[in-house]
Design a protein that fits this description.
Blueprint: E1 3-4, E2 7-8, H1 26-30, H2 33-41, E3 46-48, E4 53-56, H3 59-67, E5 72-73, H4 102-113, H5 116-140, E6 142-144, H6 145-162, H7 169-181, H8 188-195, H9 197-207, H10 218-227, H11 233-246, H12 249-264, H13 266-274, H14 279-290, E7 295-300, E8 304-306, E9 309-311, E10 316-320, H15 321-324, H16 359-376, E11 379-382, E12 387-389, E13 396-399, E14 401-405
Bound molecules: 3-methylbenzoic acid.
């Protein structure tokens, strides 16, 4: 058996085109639209020889693979590495990198911590923080929207909601960058992110300890579940680690991308201003249009078949969510950003039992920020060429210079 990027080499399934592309080439990662459409044009799956994987990017197949946890498991890792063949870089997540029945218990605990009721309590301070921040940026006029808005807002409100005594914007963003880059191949992006580990990982793990967490917060609710014997204290620590792994870079990405979308589509921003209640849908359409998590993998746990393609046990499938969310066969005028589209079935937050457990927190953050912008800002303009930051799993901006004008 030959191993490539930590998983089994597979034969090309009958009828599947071989496509010599590198999905993890920084040039593809910063500007993926041609890669997305070419992938969809190949059929339900393409075989990518340099990694010996299947890729899917049509809506139907991506949804099928992504939601069928019995055939396409997460416990063997959701990146290129197959955890059944070697040790991952960190102890696996007990909610992401796991299947039922173990998944069910951890998921219930984290779902409780992030419940709609818990989030409702935060909403008022989320709105206040968003209004203050947008007010400050309006006064500045021109600002760096990644640093001063997209990174600043989540790294202010989220650590507080978790109950961390302190925030460290750089370390929180860098840890997310590690976790998401780690899902890709052993390329320069992954190696550079991993090199930050010694400065970042010990700090993150320290924040996950029970005694570090405030008595109110998502973290405390998670730890309360070990007093009732539902989970162990160690598992509670790992679930707090999941919050810090998945809760920062994703929301940073979607906020930056939402501003980018609105700056590029002034007609859509005018719609939002006319009806700020559309903030919720501006968020969903940004998710569909930009897919902050562009790729997650699954592993076939048995010989099976999808859309007539025979898939062998051990096959790694990269599910290109970014491509599925722009599939013309599912979305009329897929390449148009339209906040009145109201796309409730995009795949940006996943689908099925592993669907984003933090989505209501993300929605609350985005709603607070976009509502404040709709109410206070007259126009949003690009004040420089946007620059994207390549990441093996996250589609995110590196630099976005913006001018806000008031009346
Ligand atoms: C990258 C990522 C996404 C979702 C969950 C987690 C990590 C986790 O650590 O649980």
């Amino acid at each position: 058996m030959k191993i490539i990027e930590g998983h089994k080499e597979i034969d090309v399934p009958a009828g599947v085109p071989v496509w010599d592309v590198d999905p993890y080439d920084p040039a593809v990662l910063v500007d993926p639209s041609d890669y997305y459409s070419e992938l969809r044009s190949k059929g339900p799956f393409a075989y990518i020889p340099r990694y010996s994987i299947l890729a899917c990017g049509r809506y139907e197949e991506t949804k099928e693979v992504f939601s069928d946890w019995e055939r396409f498991v997460s416990s063997r890792g959701v990146g290129l590495q197959d955890f059944s063949l070697g040790e991952p870089w960190r102890p696996p997540s007990i909610v992401l990198e796991v299947d039922p029945p173990d998944h069910t218990k951890a998921r219930a605990v984290i779902e409780r911590a992030l419940s709609p009721g818990a989030i409702r309590k935060l909403m008022e301070s989320y709105r206040e923080d968003a209004e203050n921040l947008i007010g400050e940026l309006l006064e500045k006029g021109t600002f760096e929207a990644v640093e001063e808005l997209a990174e600043t807002y989540p790294t202010t409100v989220f650590p507080d909601a978790v109950g961390l005594g302190e925030s460290d914007r750089r370390r929180l963003v860098d840890y997310g960058e590690m976790v998401f880059n780690a899902l890709g191949p052993d390329n320069e992006l992954r190696r550079n992110a991993m090199a930050k580990g010694p400065n970042v990982v010990p700090w993150i793990l320290e924040q996950c300890k029970r005694e570090r967490l405030e008595p109110e917060g998502f973290g405390a609710t998670i730890y309360a579940a070990c007093d009732t014997g539902e989970i162990t204290e160690e598992e509670a620590g790992l679930l707090v680690r999941s919050l810090l792994s998945a809760g920062v870079d994703t929301t940073v990405a979607v906020l930056g991308s939402a501003i980018w979308c609105l700056a590029n589509n002034p007609d859509q921003f005018q719609k939002l201003k006319a009806d700020p209640k559309l903030a919720r849908w501006a968020f969903e359409e940004t998710l569909r249009y930009t897919s902050p998590v562009h790729t997650f993998c699954r592993t076939a746990n048995l010989d099976t078949e999808v859309s007539g393609v025979k898939i062998a046990e051990g096959t790694k499938i990269i599910c290109v969510l970014g491509a599925a969310n722009l599939d013309e066969d599912h979305w009329p005028q897929a390449d148009k950003f339209d906040i009145e589209r109201k796309p409730s079935d995009h795949l940006a937050l996943g689908v099925g039992i592993h669907g984003c457990v933090g989505q209501n927190v993300a929605r609350a953050e985005a709603d607070a920020v976009l509502t404040a912008i709709a109410n206070k800002v007259e126009s949003i303009e690009l004040a420089g060429e946007p620059v994207w930051r390549p990441n093996n799993s996250v589609h995110t901006l590196d630099r976005l210079t913006i001018t806000f004008k008031s009346k």
